[in-house]
Amino acid sequence: AQRVTQPEKLLSVFKGAPVELKCNYSYSGSPELFWYVQYSRQRLQLLLRHISRESIKGFTADLNKGETSFHLKKPFAQEEDSAMYYCALLINKFYFGSGTKLNVKP
Amino acid sequence: GAVVSQHPSWVICKSGTSVKIECRSLDFQATTMFWYRQFPKQSLMLMATSNEGSKATYEQGVEKDKFLINHASLTLSTLTVTSAHPEDSSFYICSASVRTSGSYEQYFGPGTRLTVT
Fold first, then answer.
1. Chain A contacts of B106, Cβ < 8 Å?
2. What does the pLDDT read at residue A82?
């Protein structure tokens, strides 16, 4: 069974528009959740994790245990945010979602 | 910051030959390294977990005799694709894990593109 679901393969928004990348997980315990980003021709890198409650590059993600979601949000998208975004769940090992490609248009 | 390197970055080999991919943590020690496979426009699929000094733990469906993993030191893990076939062509990514204040941090290598002809 898929542990992490990212329903959108591609998300296109205009520069300055709000963006939300959806992530739902399947786990009954206390999850450790992460968002990773992969810019074009670059390696995967950590964007943020829920445990630190931080905001990186204007992105935030709130864990909603009731909805088992960890959506990634940014109020004003920038062109440089265009990348692949992966949601990941850590339970002894990492489970990655299928990824969402964010395309921010000028 | 922590850096993970992979070598080679790309390799083309003939069917039936073996290919070794190295994963190194350059400025930190990693007791655990992970090997992933990524198909075009798809997510990362965990192949195996490599612990220094012990046998790797393979995910279901991954042939351990075909994908040999060695983690001889705290900074080096290798993946050998034995008797490679065209269907093994893929992007292989390693990551090194470090425990930080109650959680894990993963640092990814740049990946190795394997093409089997």
1. 46, 94
2. 97
